[in-house]
Amino acid sequence: MNYIGDLAMSIQDAGGNYLDATQNGDTSWNFTSGGGVVYLRSLPKGWEETEAKWVRDPGYMGVFRSQSNSFDFVDAARAILKNIILNGSVQGYAVLTIWIWNEATFGYDVFYKSRINFGAAKNTSFGGGGSAISPYNPGFFNAATLDSDLYQLLEAWGGNEYNIPFWTYNGTTWVTDAIAVQHQGIKLLYNATYEGGTNPDSGDVYTINGWRKGDHPGRHTIFSMTLVQITQNNGTTTFVGNDILNNSLKQGQQTQYLNEIDFQVPPNSMPFTNQNYIMYNLLADVQMSFSITFGFANNISYNWDFPDAQPVLSFVLFEIDPKNACTGGSLKTSIHLFDVILYGGGGPPQDLAPGDIGYPTDAMVHTYTMGVNTGNPRITWPSDSVTLKKGYVYVFGCIYDYPVADSHAMSQDMSISFTLSKLELSCFSMYNSGSAAPVPAPSYTPSPLLAFRPAQILQKLVPCLNSLTTDAYGFPVIPAGTPYTGRSDYLSDMSVLPQNNHDNIPWATVWTSASALQDLEGQPYLSLSVNDFFQACFSIWGMGLGIENDVSGNPTVLRMEQLSYFFDKDTMIVDLGTDVANLTCRLANDILVNILNTGYSAQNTNNDFGIDAFNREQDYNTPLSQIRQTNLNLIAAAVVAEMYAIEKLRVQQAQSPLPISATAGQSNNNNNILLEINFLPANDGGTPLTLIVEDPGGNAQTMDYYNVLQYNNAQSTDPTAASAPYIKGLYYPDTAINLGITPVKNIQRIGGYLRALCDGSETGVLTFRKIYQMLFNGTATELPGIQTNLNGTLTIIFFAALLVL
Prior knowledge:
This protein is mostly beta strands. Strands 16, 17, 19, 24, 25, 28, 29, 30 and 32 form a 9-stranded antiparallel beta sheet that branches. It is elongated. The two termini are 41 Å apart.
């Protein structure tokens, strides 16, 4: 056993020191340790049958699980290992290195290195009989090896969720290494529809007195209007803009007030005080469209006081300020939505087509009854866009007067009488299907937030694997001297531009949380596990996870890189040497797949009709139709990337502010959120712009910031347009976010791996398994999300270079 030739072994302690032992004359041992390599003078029994194997972890794909056969250590090696058990902690620690002779360098190279498994070790005499060992029967120490500490921690705690704070307190001030981001908001599809209190059988009768161009004592009338819920075939009733903006662009109810003179004081309507309005805008000024549908049940009777003038019945919006007064402090201002121009001294009305309202056949000067064509009594008229000002309420009513441009004013003693069989008002955000120049639409107020880049998260998460306790606020306590670190060149790479990597790179993508997005008081934080973080990086950027040695040769580095880093045919994993027999290579049929599950977990956004969600789960069929059904999970389930779900989270406020730091177990509902940001910080001609972020101590801190990435030239109708990106069916492409991390874009970035899984079928295509949603008009349409001009198919051969697995 004293012969050392092609093979050598050494043992190190937890500090990396090489251990040695020499025996005294009384059979006791002297133990020494040092930094230089010390080879065991006696190899274990059966050393010539040394065996080690490496198995690639199928989940992480960059980690190789290792295992050796058991060894019977004798002499000094046995004494060293027994001494570790007797004098060490409850669980012994030692690293076994197997060295192999290199003829070229005339020295030893590391062949295998791993921890000794003391849990299954046995100290046995040569003759058997358990541990009865004497100086004349020294016995042996039987032990095998197991994976590194870091791999064991990854296996044990990789799924454990850790709370990572955005701020830390250095004893004097609050500091952060997070970046500041401004979410500018996205345009939202919004609708509010109201019905008047009309009698379906006989209609409602109105007698409206003259308006006097808004001068006292001119009269106006407010209709009774009730909000209507439009139910679609799948039972949903809410536009996504309504759902998100319900506390910012408020919808109300109106009570009828006939011929009131003023708004401000009782017994007048007092719209602001009594919430007697249809809309209350708390956002920045918003442009909206309105449409009116009305019908007359019978003839219209009216009189007027200037025979040469032409009277008008106008459906209007009154703009009311917080003092319950029309804008400008008088009743002079009203927003005309539709004018019914009546017969008068100016001749017959010219703006309504015959068949809608009948024309008189004889001339009357002061009093007239206008006939109504009962065959088609209803008129629907869309108005021009109306700007709803911040802080104002809007009331729907009608006035009787002369045209605005006419200098005459209708006396309050004049009146018009009519019966309405139908009255409906609809307010909606403008929408042009993305086919022309961007149109205005409501959006929630911009807000600041803190976020981490992915490389930062890796560095913060890995040491947490060695933490078994949390502080009083629920944040992990990292033991002093924890050696484990996270490393990734790809996550920090700025040299590749997003447009050269399917519109996204990790460095221009940030990770935040609901607690940060909502800009609450207190300490915002992430709640995330290593496994969830890895799954997201694998699904979005095609990354694997491996364990590498640090500068001291210890496996303490958790490395995350693209799969091409780990599946590199030119990089040697292990040198099998020259004496290899019975080597077999086989096709890995077990990893071939025919269904790809991609995207992100569902966010229930289909419950809001009129929504164009795209960062949700999408499924694709591969061309491997002849194999049994096998799914590849490319779903980043732990993160929210859908812009409408993010917007809903952004406007939702918790019932109470966060404490100064997170409390233990408070990670529930603290969603992880991905946001694409601009490559460069916000600036004005090169001068950085700043915003104010409040730290947990309530102090305002000024920070440079990045804007959430939006494309003012994004397309939704022309897939061949030169400007990018394109998403089919998008309502407002100019403010859409996260267009570079859609399921299709993610597939293209992981394309080399997918080519390997479809090996032999590279000329085939991935086919989108279409999903449909019901629209509010009862029709079905495809859910959007296909960002390609290939009619829903992706040809595999156009993916990235084939990986050799």
